[in-house]
Each structure stands twice: as structure tokens, then as C-alpha cells.
Amino acid sequence: MSEEREKEIAEHVVAVREGHGANCSSIGSVIDTLFVAQAAAGALLVVVAAALAAAAPKKEEEKKS
Amino acid sequence: MRARAETWGAWVRLDDPPALVALDRDGARALGLDLRVIHGGEPLEAHVAVTSQCGVGCEGCYLDARPDGAHVPRETLERTLDDLAARGVFTVAFGGGEPILRDDLGDLATSARARGLLPVVTTSGIGMTPAKARSLAPFAQVNVSYDGEGEVYRAVRAFPGAPSAERAMALLRDAGVPFGVNVVLTRQSFPSLESTLSRARSLGAREAQLLRYKPAGRAARLEYLDKRLSRDQVAALGDVVRRLSLEMQPLRLRIDCAMVALLSDVFYDRAAELEALGVFGCEAGRNLVALRADGREAPCSFLDPGAVLEGPCADCALSRVCRGGCRAVARFLTGHDGPDPECPRVVRRERETGRSEDQKRGD
């Protein structure tokens, strides 16, 4: 169930900006993911989807099971 | 996690891993988010000046902070945090002046967290003590301004602040406070970028944000032309950033929103990837709001309050992420809000149309 939900969420992620963005004068974006192997972006999506699924409110059917 | 509904879906802020995520509406529903209250048009990040006081006198200070500046009253800041939380802002970045001159900076971070805001702060590190470093623990991250070692730092800011910044990094590391560095790229600091990042990494920095030098505040004068990156440096920037992104791991490399236009040659065919990674150009007045020490609200820290943004570069494939480059640079050099006159593509086009900016550069 959890894996399915993560996959479902991952399909609807439009963008991921990594990090906290700690500068006080201009917005920053992590750039290294763009230059490492393409697999890194996919791995990032998997991690983010798992974190979203874990942190989000549970769906009703999951609460019951 | 904090989420906010938009007309197109939702923004979600994750704390672990730290990330800002955009989900379409189906994704937001799958996550079980409440989509009834739409926050469209409000900023995600607020830059809040907590003081206009700073004794250092950097010659490029974008806010013209001074030794006789004043701290923003605590009650004013508490109201500001209330307002930002109500508007759906996710992140509040405290700046100044020099924020660590305040004794209540850590308490302000705690206040922000109590409202669901993620607090971060930027400091020169001057005046950092072990106790002060420990007091910054409520911050998600502290960024220390660090343009290079020794004379490199002095060449950018006109005072010898590198030892203080390095000491502050060591104190933050010892206190267990996550920190990164802000590196302003100028003609003088760019050649030493690799050693600057190596030094920051060795002191425990986990991120380095590369900042474009901008003609705002005390930097809005003709010396800007001698301090900004040369055209050859702009041409080399893409390869340097790419190489250092790989070689400096685990130090994460970030670029600021004004840098996207400078990298247009490298990024031109990668707009979709940039969008997916949330790498955007000018965010002024869109996802970003700046609150000055005098309480005025501005589109970003470098633009005057009330500035009107225009949409330049209509036929450029990168414009949907670059958004016309840095308005602060464009306004200083051309009197208009765009396009960014230092973007290599704009430079080439202006050469072709005989409107080159070469005479102004002094390269």
C-alpha cells in the first residue's frame, strides 16, 4: 500500500527545489543535481515521494486498515 | 511538513529531506491536502531585515546598513511573523544590517517556528561567540557571508573580514548549527572560487550559494562595472559551476536567482530540467517578498519598494525559468526592468542589432 501511494504521489510531483534556501537577499537553487548522473534526479523524486507519503495525513481507507 | 493550496495544485515544504515541492491538483488530493483555501499570488519566502545596524561598512552593501542603524522593534517583528504566517509564507530569512547584533535573534527564530515558518539567517559572522552560536540552534540554517580567503574577501567587501567569517563557521560547527556560505562572485573573487569553496567545506559548510554581484544600495555606482564578472568569466562560468558541483561534494552548490541569465548558454536546452528542479530566475514579487528595516515591502532585497516588473525575452526558450534575468542589474544599466543586459544571449543580440553595451563594460 505504501509503495503504491508513493508511486502515485511521485507521478504528480511537478518540481522539487532542494534545501532550505538560507540566503537573506536572493532565492537560491541547488544546482549540482543538474550536473550529476540523470539517475540522481530520479532518486531525489523517490526520496521526496516517500517523505511526502510519510508526512501527509493518512487517507480514510488507510486509517481503517 | 507544511502545505498550501494553489490554483494549479499545492506547494509543500518538507523538512526531511529539506525541500520545496510543487504538486499538481491530483497529487495534492492523493496526499489528502485541503484544497479549499487557495493562497495564490502570495510569496513563499520572505526576506526580513531585523536591523539596519552594521559596523562593517561593506562597500557593496545592498541595503546601505550603517553603524548608527537601528534594530527593528521586537513587537513589530512579531506582527510581521503573524502576517507572513497568515499569508501562507513558508520560509523567513532574517537579514540586516548584521542580525547577530540582536540579542533576541534565537528567540525570533523560535517565534517563527511557533507560527509554522522555517527560519534561516545570514550573517557576516563578525561578533560571533560560542554562546551566540549556540543561541542560533533554532534556525534551520545559518549562512555566513564568505567571498574568499584573506585578500580575496577584502577585494570584494573592502575590509578584512575573512578571519571573522572562518571563526564564525568553526563556532557554528562546534555548536552543531547547520550552516552554509554565501559567496559573492565578482571579477576579483571568481578566480579563487575553488579554494574558497574548499576552505568553507573544510570548516563544515554544507552548502555554498553563489551570488551575483548586484548594483543596489552602496553598490549602485560606476564601480559596479569593474567589480561584476568580466565577459570572459561569464563565458567560463558554466564549466566552472559544473566542475565544482561534482568536485565539491558533499558541499551542495546553489546559484541565486540572478545567476540563471548568466548561465543561459549552458542552460538553454534544459529549461524543463530546470523547472523540475525548481531552478528559476527572477523571483521578485512572485515567490519572494522583502521587508525592509523601515517596514516597507519590496519585490526583493535589491529592488525599490513598489517596483513594477515587466516580462522581457518573449521569444527565448529559457524565459519561462529565467524570467528575464536580474531586474536590479537591468535597471541600473539600462533604466528598464529587462532584459538582463549581461545575459550572453542578450549581449549577442544587441551586438547584432548594433545596441551593444560594450562601451559601458570597460572589459
What features would you describe in this structure?
The complex is a heterodimer of chains A (65) and B (363). Chain A is of the alpha+beta class and 65 residues long. Chain A has helices at 2-10, 32-35, 38-55, 60-64, and strands at 13-18, 28-30. Chain A contains four helices and two strands, in the order αββααα. Chain A starts with a helix and ends with a helix. Chain B is α/β, with parallel strands linked by helices and 363 residues long. Chain B has two domains: 1-40, no CATH class; 43-310, TIM Barrel (Alpha-Beta Barrel). Helix content of chain B is 34%, strand content 18%. A nine-stranded mixed beta sheet of chain B has the order 10-9-8-7-6-5-4-11-12, covered by helices on one side. A three-stranded antiparallel beta sheet of chain B has the order 1-2-3. Chain B is globular, with a radius of gyration of 20 Å. The model of chain B has no long low-confidence stretch (mean pLDDT 90).
Give the helices and strands of chain B as they follow along the chain. EEEHEHEHEHEHHEHEHHEHHEEHHHH
Task: Kindly give the count of domains of chain B.
Answer: 2
How much of the polypeptide of chain B forms β-strand, as a percent range? 15-25%
Any idea what the CATH architecture of the largest domain in chain B is? Answer: Alpha-Beta Barrel
Fourth-tier CATH superfamily name of the largest domain in chain B: Aldolase class I
Annotation field: number of helices of chain A: 4
Look at the helices and sheets of chain A and give the structural class: alpha+beta
* Largest interface, counted by CB within 8 Å of the partner chain's CB: A-B, 40 and 72 residues
Number of strands of chain A: 2
Assign an overall shape of chain A: flat
Q: Total helix count of chain B?
A: 15
Integer-rounded radius of gyration of chain A: 15 Å
For the termini of chain B, the CA-CA separation is 48 Å
Distance between the termini of chain A: 10 Å
Give the number of domains of chain A.
Answer: 1
Report the count of strand segments of chain B: 12
Computed over alpha carbons, the radius of gyration of chain B is 20 Å
CATH topology of the largest domain in chain B: TIM Barrel
Oligomeric state of this protein: heterodimer
